[in-house]
Design brief:
Helices cover about 0% and strands about 45% of the residues. By secondary structure, it is mainly beta. The strands form 2 sheets. It has a 6-stranded mixed sheet with strand order 2-10-9-4-5-6, with no helix packed on it.
Length: about 120
Amino acid sequence: QVQLVESGGGLVQPGGSLRLSCVVSGFTLDNYAIGWFRQAPGKEREGVSCIGRHNGITYYEDFVKGRSTISRDNAKNTVYLQMNALKPEDTAVYYCATGSHCWEYYDPTTFDYWGQGTQVTVIS
């Protein structure tokens, strides 16, 4: 049974940092790409970042590039999203999801299994 569980969200001031975790089970992490997405109230779900299977190539949307890092620890079955210099517009529920590749990491429909999400709120 495939499961993804996100954690690490919270309330943080602008300029602060959070590290989100996505713990996976039911499959071999290295065989899948893992994407991070977010959804703010009243908005569509959008891609944030992705790490490819095997080679670990990373992808970032422009709005997080330079202030976020995605990484994976296959031994711990965990993918991380380190987010720095957070802004109020980063406020959203953040989800991780499995995919076969990151080529369309911005498109949620190309990902298969999803976690329940973790809330990130950036407010002064």
